[in-house]
Amino acid sequence: MSAPSRRDDPVVTSYALAPTRTITAGGETFAYRELGPRGGVPVVFFVHLAATLDNWDPRIVDAVAAGRHVIAFDQLGVGGSSGSVPDTIEAAAKDAYTFVTALGHDVIDVFSFSMGGMIAQDLVVAHPTLVRRLVLTGTGPRGGKDIDKVAGTTYYDILRATLTRSDPKEFLFFHRDAVGKKAAREFIGRLAERTTDRDAKISTKAFSTQLKAIKAYGRSAPSDLSVITAPTLIANGDHDRMVPSPLSEDLHRRIEGSELVIYPNSGHGGIFQFHEQFAPVAVRFLGPA
User: Fold this and answer.
1) Which of 21, 56, 181, 215 is placed for a possible disulfide with 2 were both Cys, Cβ 3.0 to 4.6 Å?
2) What is the C-alpha separation between 173 and 165, in angstroms, rounded?
3) Contact indicator for 69, 43 with CB cutoff of 8 Å
């Protein structure tokens, strides 16, 4: 098992080259990667449905890591982490807290996408002082309208992708017009830049469990997001089919003082389609450590 990195370890600035490490906490082993300069408050990345460490867009991760200590991790039961996928978003948030505190951090910044944003919200609600700055992208609030329909949309697009021998993310994250198809191909290409030490893909059982957790989250009573006092950046595409774009506006209304960025002619993966514009926005928002 790998040990947590030390401050005198060589600084890695490319996500494609960041070594996979492990740490044991709460009786389970978490797999994670870190890069960027050590010291100060780290930026912890919370990943999306069915995703492993290999599903982060390196253009966004590398931009943040140019000036900040970045940590990305596999949820339990996924990729290189042990255990089983939690069957609720609340449980996933508890696991995230276990992981973060095991690394010795009592304050973090958060960058989250989709299901990761749901987990991040539950984490902040449970531990309001843990998160200093919060980035929520392609996500929505607990009890948000039509979040519980994500399973139907997901399975439909997986079928479409199978019939065309494509990656499901090309359908789930992007429009199927010429611009969207080009952005999708480029995004999938960037995800393949790491050629060694890659994660195993999520199992069918784990994927199904995550979908059920999201469905329950969508059908739950809303959380009191007024407890979120950390500066918050919210971003999405204007036609998100997975987590409907109006839910980003809903989050913006619920989180006082939050900033909202909506990208045109784009879907769930709007921040990836517009990574050249969004990465600098995220870097400026997150600021120095």
Assistant:
1) 21
2) 16
3) yes
Mean pLDDT of 213-227: 97
Print burial letters for 184-200: b (CB count within 10 Å at least 16), e (below 16): beebbebbeebeeeebe
- The reported pLDDT for the residue numbered 8 is 61
Packing angle, helices 58-65 and 275-286, rounded to 10: 30
Please give the pLDDT value at position 98.
98
Q: What CATH number is given for 15-286 in this structure?
A: 3.40.50.1820
Q: Where are the domains of the chain?
A: 15-286
> If DSSP states are collapsed to H, E and C, what string results for 68-131?
CCEEEECCCCCCCCCCCCCCCHHHHHHHHHHHHHHCCCCCEEEEEECHHHHHHHHHHHHCCCCE
Distance CA 200, CA 180 (A): 27
Higher pLDDT, 280 or 4: 280
Residue 272 and residue 270: Cα distance in Å, rounded?
5
- Report angle CA 89, 120, 247 to the nearest 5 degrees: 85
Residue 65 CB partners (closer than 8 Å, separation 6+): 13, 15, 35, 36
Q: Are 212 and 114 in contact (CB under 8 A)?
A: no
Q: Could you read off the pLDDT of 226-244 as tens digits, one per residue?
A: 999 999 999 999 999 999 9
Which one has a higher pLDDT value, 9 or 121?
121
